[in-house]
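ARCHIVE CARD
Drawer: 12
Card no.: 0347
Subject: one protein chain, sequence and derived structure
Cross-reference: see card 0346
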Amino acid sequence: MTPVTLVRCYWLGRAGYKQVWDLQLALHSRIIAGNQPPTLLLLEHKPVITVGRHGDTSNVYLSENELSAKGVELHRIERGGDVTYHGPGQLIGYPLLNLKELGLSVADYLRSLEESLIALLIEHGLVANREPGFTGVWHKEGKLTAIGIAVKRWVTFHGFALNVTTDLSYFELINPCGLSRPVTSIQQLTGLSPDCKRMAQEYLKAFKTAFGVETSELISSWPSLE
């Protein structure tokens, strides 16, 4: 019998984008080298706009200096997708998984990631779904989750951003994902304000089911790189 993959799961709290980006790259290299188990990073970000590798910067409506004056960073990164916003009140997930070990194609991985988030939202009474031709998770009132990944040597990084209690006014600074479509949040749809750390804990069950893996308890610290 093939052993079940155990994914080590971390809660990083609220963190700056560059710091976590650097952590992802370090962990990615360690996983490729066989020095790190599969890892799931869960967190919130300080306000930041990211532009994917094929993203159109015209979908960012302010200059970098103007964004900085509002306390928002701007980074061009190597994930897929176009432009999105990350910030407080958003559950961010960065799975670092070896797709070959899991027997998944990139397309399979994306569908499983969407399925995990749909399952989490169902637990909160929300009917969410995929939209044909698009990546992410949607409600009839708007987009709830942006997904943008990168895969190098079959190991994934970057991931998803689920709007929980996000200040949606920040999305007015961009054309989210270049789609000219509304975004929404759990708070806007339900009137409730779930805590992101609690949502992270709940997500582990949905993640395990969608990917057929086991997970550690949620570790409230940063991974050691020693």
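Annotation on reverse: The radius of gyration is 17 Å. The CA atoms of residues 97 and 104 lie 10 Å apart.
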